[in-house]
Write a structure and sequence with these properties.
The complex is a heterodimer. Chain A is an all-alpha fold. Chain A has 13 helices and 2 strands; from the N terminus they run ββααααααααααααα. The longest helix of chain A has 20 residues. By secondary structure, chain B is of the alpha+beta class. The relative contact order of chain B is 0.14. The chains are: A mainly alpha, B alpha+beta.
Chain lengths: 223, 341
């Protein structure tokens, strides 16, 4: 049997309220704490009410006044669950936890902008399996191991224009970006700036830069 | 029809397989973590209706017998983790004749389309994309202009695409600092490399997975091109190091090559790590051995490596180390090597 709110498998305790089955956690979140109490608690401990007050006072110290109780209205997923599991429960979660999701995307990928294909449209790719020359048996002059790997390690920056290198080369520093009038920056500067800000975990700045860039692109499209 | 990994792949001295995985979710259903059993059943039925039954076999995982589960694990449709087949009534798997193309339902996301090929073969992307396009035309797929294809794992949102090369790198791993240098190199392409092991397992081979990371800020084309440049470098580096070892340490390499072959061919019992170590040496010196006494093809080395790697029991589990398992493994290896003689 599963909790009808969160879908989790019910293991040790089943709480049924108004015909709906909840797990212990969901019942607590829905404010049905009173249903969770064992009647034996009342009989065995005449001072249970006092204990309750004391424990709630203790819990006050642990309270988080951020928006960790933010809950998706559609699937019931909480922000805390998203932060713990790295997964969301439904499409609506993308709206509910938007800021946190964007932050997570920046953290993981240094980007939150979609650049791929549209549904039911094929990706425009001509990528083919590259030809790598076969090994030659008993070559005359073997190369040294270190050279082979470290020399190669220098190349891809040029070939692939890896974003980390782009941000470092010729782009503005974080300090400059923070003080800059965004309207005066070029598209290229904005793109580089997004990377720099994301790497420095300055997500607010990164979103501002992204919005500026997006605004320009949207504006351009309208023209 | 022969199974996909029996084919002779390109660059198969280094690359065991190339895989393209694309994930999608369907609008109107919660994602898997929040999908109750009733909704899940409805999801499975909705997807089942649009699957081309002339092309695919399979269905709900709860209907699979043990042999099918073992076969699908060996053919890399199912992972080897024991939780793969937990709640089988909430999952479905469809696969084509040679199992190179599969559609998994309920494994992390609503849909996971996977195309696989032996060796180095980026055409797997187009094969997977073709199937995904077909599903996108028949189903209402969760998509946002800002984040692309929406997924329950936020790290997959965007293209929902992963390209994975499974590579065997005996020479790089035997070279001091080789894997560290390679890891650095791979990260410059914004890709990742990790040893072949699933959760809770011990990495006990020189087999690595090189995988794309980004699903946002890049087009599918960029991912593929970057991957092709990277894998070409990895192949070149591994081959150069093999040449280095085989030339500079010829006698030792030849000796260990013969011993490794002997162990594989004549052992009555063999552990998983011993077999994988021996296969690593065979691969490393394979191109350089020319006395003609030992006949084993790259394809056979790959088949054996994959069979052992995808054994359903994880190496950390006692069962795969039991005498019966070791005996069974040794017999299987002998049988395959006999075929090459």
């Amino acid at each position: 049997m599963r909790c009808e709110r969160c879908g989790k498998e019910l293991t040790n305790r089943i709480i049924k309220i108004n015909g709906v089955t909840y797990c212990e956690n969901c019942a607590r979140l829905m404010g049905y704490d009173r249903f969770l109490k064992d009647p034996a608690d009342f009989l065995g401990n005449p001072f249970s009410q006092l204990d309750e007050i004391a424990s709630s006072l203790m819990q006050m110290n642990e309270l988080d006044f951020g928006n960790s109780t933010l809950t998706c209205p559609k699937c019931g997923m909480t922000l805390r669950e998203f932060e713990t599991e790295g997964r969301v429960g439904c499409i609506e979660c993308y709206n509910t936890f938007n800021n946190n999701i964007v932050r997570e995307m920046f953290k993981q990928q240094g980007n939150s902008e979609y650049a791929g294909r549209l549904p039911a449209q094929s990706a425009d790719t001509d990528a083919e399996t590259s030809d790598v020359p076969q090994a030659k048996k008993k070559a005359a002059a073997p190369k040294t191991v270190e050279m082979e790997i470290s020399d190669k390690a220098e190349e891809p920056v040029k070939e692939t224009k890896a974003p980390a290198a782009k941000a470092a080369k010729g782009g503005l520093t974080l300090d400059q970006l923070m003080k800059a009038d965004l309207g005066m920056l070029s598209d290229e500067d904005l793109e580089k700036g997004i990377k720099v800000a994301a790497e420095a975990e300055e997500y607010k700045l990164a979103s501002k830069l992204r919005d500026e860039l997006k605004g320009r692109k949207d504006g351009g499209n309208n023209v | 029809m022969s199974e996909w990994y029996m084919n002779e792949g390109k660059d198969n001295d280094v690359v065991l397989s190339t895989k393209a995985c694309i994930v999608r979710n369907i609008k109107g259903y919660n994602f898997m973590p929040r999908l109750d059993d009733k909704e899940c059943k409805s999801l499975l039925e909705t997807i089942d209706k649009v699957i081309d039954k002339d092309k695919y076999t399979g269905g709900c995982a709860a209907d699979f017998d043990k042999q099918t589960v073992l076969r699908l694990t060996r053919l890399q449709i199912l992972g080897r983790e024991s939780n793969q087949m937990a709640t089988p009534e909430r999952k479905a798997f469809y696969y084509n004749d040679d199992v190179s193309l599969s559609i998994a339902v309920g494994s992390g996301e609503h849909l996971t389309v996977k195309a696989m090929a032996a060796g180095h073969d980026i055409s797997v992307y187009k094969k997977a994309e073709k199937e995904v396009l077909d599903l996108e035309s028949k189903l209402d797929i969760a998509f946002s202009e800002s984040y692309g294809f929406l997924t329950s794992h936020v790290r997959l949102a965007g293209t929902g695409l992963k390209i994975l090369y499974t590579v065997s790198l005996p020479a790089i791993s035997k070279t001091e600092g080789g894997i560290a240098a390679l890891t650095q190199r791979v990260s410059q392409y914004e890709w990742a490399i990790y040893p072949f092991a699933e959760r809770g397992e011990i990495a006990d081979s020189d087999v690595y997975i090189i995988s794309s990371v980004n699903t946002l800020g890049v087009t599918e084309d960029e991912v593929l091109k970057r991957g092709e440049m990277l894998i070409a470098d990895v192949i070149k580096a591994e081959r150069a190091l093999r040449e280095e070892i085989a030339t500079n340490q010829k006698d030792q390499s030849e000796d260990i090559y013969g011993r490794s072959y002997g162990t594989l061919k004549y052992a009555g019992m063999i552990s998983r790590s011993e077999a994988l170590q021996a296969l690593g040496w065979l691969r490393l010196y394979h191109e350089y051995y020319d006395s003609g006494d030992i006949k084993v093809s790259c394809n056979t080395i790959n088949k054996l490596t994959m069979d052992i790697l995808w054994e359903p029991d994880a190496p950390s589990k006692k069962s795969s180390q039991s005498a019966a398992s070791q005996k069974y493994r040794a017999q299987g290896i002998k049988k395959i090597l006999k075929g090459d003689d």
